[in-house]
Amino acid sequence: MGNAFSYLTDPDTAVAINLKCLQRGLLMFAPVGIGGECLKIAPPLTITEDALRESLRVFEEACDDVLGKK
Known about the structure:
The protein is mainly α.
């Protein structure tokens, strides 16, 4: 039996988003959490604003691709 919130988790989607990010050159941690349903990012403390914005753009595009939004 899973935890009380197990019906809300979707590790397959987390993995798919993670792979889309990797394909676009954005390296992220593997999905984390009890069921692997969470995405974790950890940009360097010295990241430039341009690099941060580019990373967020790639992450957004990956999410849109996996979730079927355009």
